[in-house]
Structures are given as structure tokens and as C-alpha cells.
Amino acid sequence: MRGISKFFLLLAILLNFSSAFANIVRVHIFNQYNIKTVAITPIEGKYQFSTENGFIYKLKKNHIVYFTAIGDSITVWDADRHLGIFNRIQFRGLTNNNIFSIESAFPALPKRIHEGDLSISAKAHKLDIINFVSEENYLAGVIEAESGPKAHIEFYKTQAIISRTYLYSKIAAEGETNYFLGDDVNYQVYKGMCHLNPDIRTAVTHTNNLVIVDTLSQLITATFHANSGGETVNSEDYWLTETSYLKATPDPFSLNQRSAVWVDSIPINKWLTYLGKNGIDVKTDKGKIENLYFEQPYRKKYYIYNNDSILTRKIRTDFKLRSTWFSIYPSNGYVYFNGRGYGHGVGLSQDGAMQMAKENFSFNEIIHFYYKNIKVVSFELHSTEN
Q1: Which of 134, 272, 302, 331 is most exposed, with the fewest beta carbons within 10 Å of its own?
Q2: CB-based contacts of 358: which residues, under 8 Å, 6+ apart?
Q3: pLDDT for position 9
Q4: Can you list the residues of the chain whose pLDDT is less than 70?
Q5: What string of H, E and C letters represents the secondary structure of 349-371?
Q6: DSSP characters for 310-359?
Q7: pTM for the full predicted model
Q8: How many whole angstroms separate alpha carbon 339 and alpha carbon 343?
């Protein structure tokens, strides 16, 4: 009964989402940068921007407007004149199909194409830019940014369900009015409009309302990474938090892929210094260096030397390695890391899932392969796919 009650509670939350935010997602774009100036240009539809004092300015197609943070205010101008200084700006589309480009001039960043509306404010000479975009368009943009435009549609369906699960989890945890979404790898990568492969939008539509829940009908943490190297890892072996669904799994589908193996190296003196700083002395009483070989035929949580150890996750982070799954051997003044996989290794391997899709596995089969003891649930239909 407890699981059933939680199921209906989650149904109520998610059904409330559809009415509460009307399928509009709020995402802070360029959130990892200190943006000073942006240029915004309508390229489809019609736009206007309004301010806190009632100022309204309509923009025609290809009309460039510049916004610059000055302290806690925003100064606005176009090619003809200075339009004023304001505290907050609402940039809104006036038709059913509104698309604009946005380019950061300081710092200089590549131009992006976005759908939907914007809110712009400033604090301490930095612009805070929020894109208000439909859930469907947001998910399509995330999938293209996270997965690229050349995958099989069954993989895109898989990624759509994972990305929707993450989105709903954020809103459920933080509240509809308080949740924060950035556009970088700390959230879900989002670089604007999906435009390179129409299969992505089809996948989002086909999986409408589908999310992943555990045996208690709670939204899972649907983690994924680029390549498992042939074996995923338990969540508790990477993040210390155990779950019923993020379990180590042999993954032959990720083998023979571009990111399945890798090699890196550092000078041996740098490695010895690093070990010393982490409490490991590799020299004997006679001053000779002990054996530096470290074999990792399967994923290990710790690099172990005699009775001392370092988390492999820490080594990966400190040396910016592709994964924690590496063996070490010294040669010609260097230590070499022979590695497998790309990313943390927890949950779904994107390379493996793409390969499964090519081999005609369905999105449901792919999800159940990488996540254990879960269900794919349609909240609109109140049904599940097992």
C-alpha cells in the first residue's frame, strides 16, 4: 500500500506540473559565464521587449538589439539609438513560431538559436538570462546537445525519457516556482533549438509523458555517461549513495566504440609528488622507488599501494582523466594510464545505448538493460511499460 500511495502522490505532482507551468520550462542560459553584453535578433515570428516601467519596443525580423549589464541595471541600444536603462526586461514572441538568435559579445561565445521567450536582469555587472521554452522544445534541444544528430531514433526515445525524468525530478525536488536549471554539464547540456535531425523531435513526441520510476514509484536519478568501457559501476562505488537501480552491469555494447579505450600520461616525478601529497611514500629505506604498476582488470573504487589508498575518482578528477577505470605502468620517465570508458560509468552508457538501438533493441529494452528494478511510466495514461 505504501508503494501505491507514493505512486498516486507522484501522479498528482506530475499532473499538477502540466497545469502549473503549462509545459513551459525555465532554463538559465550561459549560466556558467559572466555575461556582460549580448546581441539578440529575431529570425522567425515577431518579438517585443517590455520593461518594468511600461516601455514596450517591437522588433522586426533581423533587427539586432544589444543588452549590457551596468551594475544592477541593463542598458539597451540598437544600431540607431540608445533605448534606455532598465532593471528587468521581458523579451516575448508574438506569434506561434518565435525563434531568435543570441550571441554573447563579452565574453565572445558562439551564436545560439533559441525558441520561446527571455527574461533578462542584471546583478554586479553580469546578465542573468532565462529562456522560457516549451517542454518539448527544451527536451529536443537537450537531446541534440547531449547526443548529437546521428543516432538511431530508438536511442533518441531513450534519451528523451531520461531527460524528462531529470526535468521532472528537479521540479519535484525544488518546487515549480523555485527550481533552477542551468544549461551546462552540471544540469543537462542545452544549447538552444534542435534543428539538425527531425527524428529527435519525433522521439520527444512519441515518448510524451514517459518517465522512469523505481519500485516505490519514485522518479529515479537517471544518470548517464559517454561510454562504460564494458562495465557500468554501482552508484555507491562512485558517489557513496546506494540505489536499487544503479547497479554494476556487464556492457558488451560499449566495447569497440571510439571512447571505449584511451591512454594518458604524466611525468613520473609529478606522479611521485602527487602520491606523497596524498600520504603515500613509494620509496624504500634504501631510497629506491617501489613498484608503480597498478592493475585494474575490473572497476575498483580505490588505487591501492601497500596499505595506503586513494579514491580512483579523486585521481580521475585531479588529472582530468576520462574515467576511473585505468591501469598504471611506468616507462621512460612517465607513468601511463591505460584507461577504459569515458565518464563516471554509473547508469546508461550512451555509446552502448546507441549500439543497442542499431541492433534493433527498443527504447524500453535499452532502459531496462542499464537501470535495474524500474518501470517506464506514462503519467498521462496512468499505465506502465514493463
Answers
A1: 331
A2: 152
A3: 46
A4: 1-22, 284-288, 380-386
A5: EHHHHHHHHHCCCCHHHHHHHHC
A6: EEHHHHHHHHT-S-S-EEEEEETTEEEEEEE-BS---SEEHHHHHHHHHT
A7: 0.87
A8: 11
